[in-house]
Write a structure and sequence with these properties.
The complex is a heterodimer of chains A (about 400) and B (about 200).
Chain A (H helix, E strand, L loop, with lengths): L10 H8 L4 H7 L4 H8 L1 H10 L4 E8 L1 H4 L2 E9 L2 E5 L12 E7 L2 E6 L6 E5 L4 E5 L12 E9 L4 E11 L9 E9 L7 E4 L10 E4 L2 E6 L11 E6 L4 E5 L7 E7 L2 E8 L2 E9 L4 E9 L13 E7 L2 E6 L2 E6 L1 H5 L7 E2 L4 E5 L9 E6 L6 E3 L10 E3 L6
Parallel strand pairs in A: 19-23
Antiparallel strand pairs in A: 1-2, 1-25, 2-3, 4-5, 5-6, 6-7, 8-9, 9-10, 10-11, 12-13, 13-14, 14-15, 16-17, 17-18, 18-19, 20-21, 21-22, 22-24, 26-27
Chain B lengths: L29 E2 L5 E7 L4 E5 H4 L3 H8 L7 E3 L4 H13 L7 H7 L15 H10 L4 H14 L2 H16 L3 H8 L7 H10 L6
Parallel strand pairs in B: 2-4
Antiparallel strand pairs in B: 1-2, 2-3
Helix pairs in contact in B: 3-6, 6-7
The chains are: A mainly beta (about 400), B alpha+beta (about 200).
């Protein structure tokens, strides 16, 4: 303790100092001493860090082998020397209960939905390996013919995380065009009565993964399911108004994928040898910017009719796309300056940087995580009655 | 707060800014360039520094004291040493017009006291000065951190916290202990468990 007299440095100063550090560095600092760990674990510090630090985008893949081992682990993916490196060190063996599927990620939390109605829905923080389970919704699917879709997002105005469940029960099963009776429920994390509430429903049953962007959850709706929408379109659920709406996508000609790019909803349309990336400028007025036109080439094994876009992100002047089983990198810098944005930036031929065959043992999912806070405080409300653990999330706990 | 014009005995006295330390404690408040008052800060080791009122406003602690009418005699700051206070005063002077506290100054603004205040983004020169300012050893940096906290000077806190954060950013756990002068108070088992939990952060 020579000279420094750390005890004379107010806690506020450490809060300020550490709020400038990235998550990874803070995780290491926890191992320094109980004093430092105490500062980083302080909810006040975590709130400050969450609110002041720039979002850190960790492109993550997580691999799950739950059917065999009941383990989901999370691996960090990063670009290094123009190669995609996947660090196989798991952040945590996250789940210990039954089989779950990935729903989505926001603010560094991951949401997993159960594969069977008996299991609870899980929210976990991969940084701390903590997870909580939510109580079960009031309405349970009757049988296998019911389709359940989940969504997970954050409402900045109320600082609440919300989980949405959409249950589609076939109504007139014998029709040519299947009709569904659809109910939607919302669970607010950290709310005093953390229960599922019914919200206004919507005539479409989404399929596939959600995208959380611009304060709303988005799902792709396959066009052929409804006669009035011949092509694919996007169903959105606004987390503040809790209402569903249709977001029209910019080009109705082609196959569509949706992802999150720079915090905005991004629609990717595929046509012969070209992938066009649109970014939503004004969702309610349906304004889109054409951001990139990407030559697809003819990647081995790519089914151009139904390409599966796994994830896409921008980092250090490159755009990385993970299409089907191929990760591809496009340098952006030179194309930004001298081309008008409205016309889209034509990107040069792709450069393959990774191959998901590396991960043939596992499933790969996108989990772009803005991991901005470290712990969540768990409060066990009534474990004896078999109720799920409830959580006072940092942000929901006002 | 009284503006410089109201003090009858001081109204004609103009002093070059920044002035050297060591005025007689009995002298009345001074006026700096533009007719603004100059306040005198006194360190714990009895060194005195003249500071333009506009510069002193970068510290919420000083601003409160001035608003409470404590700015007429030398203002004692017993927990700051002369060398630390000298550095702080210099930083305040260099950051005059820093837009970070433009709003706060507007709140304080009375009788056109800061009429020549023109917010301007820190120039490359000021940024260079900031870098130089925190290029000090650990103990000096933490003296400045404590001063920033005591003075409630957001700009000073910003510069010093950034420097300390930069310093520990890429350190190993052992180096951080050394840097903060901390003893490892975990049991070997506790530390191993924490390291295992945060294994990903050590790559």
């Amino acid at each position: 303790m020579v000279g420094l007299q750390i005890e004379r440095i107010p806690r506020d100063v450490f809060f300020n100092m550490f709020s400038r550090l990235p998550i990874k560095c803070l995780a290491r600092l926890r191992c320094v001493s109980k004093f430092i760990n105490g500062i980083i674990s302080d909810p006040l510090f975590q709130k400050l860090h969450f609110e002041t630090s720039a979002p850190e985008v960790y492109p993550l893949i997580f691999t799950y082998r739950i059917w065999r081992e009941n383990i989901i682990s999370l691996n960090q993916m990063q670009l290094q020397d123009q190669k995609l490196q996947v660090r196989f060190t798991s952040i945590g063996h996250l789940l210990t209960s039954g089989p779950h599927e990935f729903v989505g990620t926001c603010n560094g939390l991951l949401c997993f939905a159960p594969c069977t109605p008996e299991e609870p829905l899980l929210i976990c923080n991969p940084i701390t390996s903590e997870y909580i389970s939510l109580s079960k919704p009031a309405v349970n699917p009757l049988d296998q013919s019911c389709a359940t879709t989940f969504g997970f997002g954050f409402q900045p105005s109320s600082k609440e995380h919300k989980v949405v469940r959409i249950l589609a029960v076939p109504a007139n099963g014998r029709d040519e065009v299947p009709d569904f009776h659809i109910t939607a429920e919302v669970y607010t994390l950290g709310a005093a009565a953390g229960l599922w509430r019914k919200v206004q429903s919507f005539p479409y049953a989404p399929q596939g993964g959600q995208v959380f962007a611009q304060g709303a959850l988005h799902w792709k709706i396959h066009g052929q399911h409804r006669l009035e929408h011949e092509s694919d379109h996007i169903m959105s659920f606004d987390l503040s108004t809790e209402e569903f709406s249709t977001t029209l996508h910019p080009s109705f000609e082609h196959e569509l994928s949706i992802v999150e790019l720079r915090g905005s909803l991004s629609a990717i349309t595929f046509s012969w040898r070209q992938m066009t990336v649109w970014v939503s400028k004004d969702r309610l007025n349906n304004e889109w910017d054409m951001e990139y036109c990407i030559p697809l080439g003819v990647p081995r094994g790519l089914d151009s009719r139904f390409p599966r876009l796994v994830c896409m992100w921008e980092s250090d002047g490159v755009l990385v796309t993970w299409l089907q089983d191929r990760a591809t990198m496009f340098p952006l810098k030179t194309y930004y300056d001298d081309q008008p944005k409205e016309r889209g930036n034509n990107l040069p031929p792709p450069r393959y940087i990774g191959d998901s065959e590396l991960y043939s043992e596992t499933s790969v999912h996108q989990a772009m995580t803005k991991a901005a806070f470290i712990t969540t405080s768990c409060v066990d409300i009534d474990d004896e009655l078999g109720q799920a653990l409830h959580i006072n999330f940092l942000l929901g706990d006002r | 707060m009284s503006s410089g014009d109201s003090g009858p005995s001081s109204s004609k006295q103009l002093v070059q800014q920044p002035a050297a330390a060591g005025r007689s404690p009995n002298q009345p408040p001074l006026l700096g360039a533009g007719g603004r008052k100059v306040i005198v800060l006194k360190s714990g080791d009895e060194e005195e520094f003249e500071v333009d009122l506009l510069d002193a406003m970068q510290s919420r602690t000083l601003r409160r004291a001035i608003e409470d009418g404590c700015g007429d005699g030398p203002m004692p700051l017993p927990n700051l040493t002369g060398p630390v206070l000298a550095k702080v005063v210099e930083l305040f002077r260099r950051h005059r017009g820093d837009p970070r506290w433009a709003d706060e100054l507007q709140e304080t603004e009375k009788e056109g006291m800061f009429k020549d205040y023109a917010p301007q983004k820190p120039t490359a020169e000021v940024k260079g000065f900031d870098r130089e300012f925190v290029s000090v050893d650990r103990d000096a940096l933490f003296d400045l951190l404590r001063a920033a906290n005591f003075l409630e000077a957001p700009g000073l806190l910003d510069v010093t916290c950034d420097a300390a954060a930069d310093a520990v950013m890429n350190m190993t756990v052992e180096e951080v202990r050394e840097y903060f002068g901390l003893v490892n108070d975990y049991t070997p088992e506790e530390e191993a468990a924490l390291r295992k939990q945060h294994e990903w952060a050590f790559q």
